[in-house]
Amino acid sequence: MARIGFVGLGNMGGGMAANLAKAGHDVHAFDLSADALERAVAAGCRAAGSAAAAGEGAEAIVTMLPAGKHVAQVYHDSVFGQAPASALLIDCSTIDVATAKQVAAEAAARGYAAVDAPVSGGIAAANAGTLTFMVGGSDEAFGRAKVFLDTMGKAVIHAGASGAGQAAKICNNMVLGAEMIATCEAFLLADKLGLDPQKFFDIASVSSGQSWSLTSYAPWPGVGPETPADRDYQGGFATALMLKDLRLAMEAASSVGADTPMGAKAKELYEAFDQEGNGGLDFSAIIRTL
Ligand code: NAD
């Protein structure tokens, strides 16, 4: 079993670090929040006094932080030159592709192997160890990372070179944002046309309108499996996080000159929904404003 440094024990990182500890790894954990650190200790991790201390003598260092600036700061201040050169750096945060590539290049220049390994699945999957990991990095670094990621996920996929994991994540979530809005529109139109929403669900879920937003995450209460719509849109995947991912997708699209009109419209609609004070509601709650 390995000594692992884990930095960022929030909604997602807390469950992920706990699963590594449960599998028998010696997890030295750090978070700026004392409460988050306390919860990680209760779940079997050891408390480190700083991010640098978490990485001391580590075979791998996992980061699960809010955004690119946090990852760059932790790598620069606490990992580079301080963690053993043999340590594998695994960043599971969702961050911009440019920063992911930049920190991977800086890591390589200092002799560290590094991967970007963002996740799909949310808090329940982080706790259950059933995340999907999309991984960017060399074959060798992927092989080393997979051993640890398998403990926290149900699917670990090598997306390509550094930054490819983040590219996969934002492309996936751009589809999800646009698809959710289209699904909401269809439910509302069906209802206005006098079609029973349950009948619309029964038909579209076995027709060409089928999608994850419809069959696994229906935004209409009482239809399909239980979803945040059945809990007044509490819990689930917050609108603010969907907006973050759509902004990252639009930034990336403009950096390479890709035309993404549907993604841009989804971002615009989620921005308006967020500005009305709905950032904490599940992203399917956008049905309320359409
Ligand atoms: P969170 O805000 O709950 O957790 C982030 C943690 O990082 C916090 O506990 C914070 O104190 C800590 N932190 C910030 N800066 C730090 C530093 N310099 N040193 C140590 N700790 C520091 O966020 P989350 O929901 O756990 O999300 C983490 C990442 O996962 C984000 O990039 C998010 O986009 C992504 N993600 C989240 C979900 C979700 O459903 N919550 C799903 C998929 C991906």
From TrEMBL:
InterPro entries, per database record: 3-OH-isobutyrate_DH-rel_CS, 6-PGluconate_DH-like_C_sf, 6PGD_dom2, 6PGDH_NADP-bd, HIBADH, HIBADH-like_NADP-bd, HIBADH-related, NAD(P)-bd_dom_sf
PANTHER family to which the protein is assigned, alphabetical: 3-HYDROXYISOBUTYRATE DEHYDROGENASE, MITOCHONDRIAL, 3-HYDROXYISOBUTYRATE DEHYDROGENASE-RELATED
Family membership noted in the UniProt record: Belongs to the HIBADH-related family.
Keywords: Branched-chain amino acid catabolism, NAD, Oxidoreductase
Source organism of this protein record: Sphingomonas echinoides
A Gene Ontology molecular function term of the record: 3-hydroxyisobutyrate dehydrogenase activity
Root EC class: oxidoreductase
Catalysis: reaction(s): 3-hydroxy-2-methylpropanoate + NAD(+) = 2-methyl-3-oxopropanoate + NADH + H(+)
EC number: 1.1.1.31
Domain 3-hydroxyisobutyrate dehydrogenase-like NAD-binding: 163-289
Pfam families per UniProt: NAD_binding_11, NAD_binding_2
Domain 6-phosphogluconate dehydrogenase NADP-binding: 3-160
Name recorded for this polypeptide: 3-hydroxyisobutyrate dehydrogenase
Pathway: Amino-acid degradation; L-valine degradation
